[in-house]
């Protein structure tokens, strides 16, 4: 396994562990699906997760990738998780969760915040 693949697997596993401890017991790493990638984590209703563990950040490209995976998974929302440099895998709860403002406001309305449209 390549070093980059190992870093990705480590980050995905750390996020799964965090999600399980945060009340999502069915969270697990998803098997690779090739061209029709469905995201990195499964077992959380309505979400497609894309996890990145890189020294440099490519947020726009990664958000496009997350959107494609959301559509492939037929998920309501896609969320990009970025492990910041200097924040270890034991602190996955401190990593960055990034999504479009549109998705965030829709999610908040769905949860009963704000006016429904």
How would you describe what is shown here?
The chain is α+β, with helices and mostly antiparallel strands and 117 residues long. The chain is built from 3 helices and 5 strands; from the N terminus they run αβββαββα. It has helices spanning 3-21, 59-73, 101-110; strands at residues 28-29, 41-42, 47-52, 77-82, 96-98. The strands form 2 sheets. It has a 3-stranded mixed β-sheet with strand order 3-4-5. It has a two-stranded antiparallel ribbon with strand order 1-2. The longest helix is centred in the first third of the chain and has 19 residues, at 3-21. The radius of gyration is 14 Å and the shape is globular. The termini are far apart. The model has no long low-confidence stretch (mean pLDDT 92).
Structural classification: alpha+beta
Could you tell me how far the N terminus lies from the C terminus, measured between alpha carbons in angstroms?
48 Å
Query: Over all CA atoms, what is the radius of gyration?
Result: 14 Å
Strand order of the largest sheet: 3-4-5
Number of beta strands? 5
Q: What's the main sheet like?
A: 3 strands, mixed
* Elements, N to C (H/E): HEEEHEEH
Mean of pLDDT: 92
| Strand content range | 15-25%
Shape: globular
State the oligomer: single chain
Q: Which regions are unreliable across 5 or more consecutive residues at pLDDT < 50?
A: none
Report the total helices.
Answer: 3
Helix content: 25-40%
